[in-house]
Design brief:
about 260 residues; alpha+beta
Amino acid sequence: MNDTPNYQDIFARLAAPFHPDDIEWRAGATNSDKNKALALAYITSRAVMERLDEVMRPENWKDEYAPGPDGGVICGLSLRIHDEWITKWDGAENTEFEAIKGGLSDAFKRAGYKWGIGRYLYRLESHWVPCEVHGKTIVLKSIPPLPSWALPAPDGAAVSRIASTSSQNGSERAHQILTELGFGDVQPAAQPAVMIPAPISSGPSAPNGNGKKATSWNAAVVQAVLKAHLAATAAEAVHLLNESGLDANTTPEQAIARLQSMRKD
């Protein structure tokens, strides 16, 4: 198709960290005094388009849209790889501000996450920063610094850094997910292939990677978060739920509503 050499190179370049100027921040959950907010990072649709142009060239990607099954819009993002078009779909609800345009933009970005574009932002450590209330809007007064692995490198090392932080064998990944689900005493198996049990019931809590108390979330809640495309993996879903302020007895509907309110941009 084009002069991109192979799949591995394509996906690594798509997933590489963005320049900090391409990262925007918004307020998520706030404390009771509304003077601190969880800072959430996201990329703009413009940054996604530029990344696609850079890696694939403009003639080798395309986007299409259709009404969502329950409202909103779904986006199909297609890449031409070795003369074959491959499409990944995702969707979003229309936003409160510039409803249709916002829905299109969100659906496009979420389809980009399916290709790995900007997905590393889900792995950023959570930070609470000072904020101000301006009517119905929460404005961040500062933004947290990005860790070195989430910054681009002029020598191209950023691609290898992001790959090293996200590439794990099956055992390590399974252990990470189980730990974030609250089963902190589970050790990785000797063999790389480990199956995660489907039922995830409420149980003992353990500190997560940020030193906060993790919760064993019900499988229905985790699956609802994944089905709503609020997270790409079970581990990301659990991380968001742990930061949401909800308890283990929350219903899937309550969890979705809470995470959607934290994620709006």
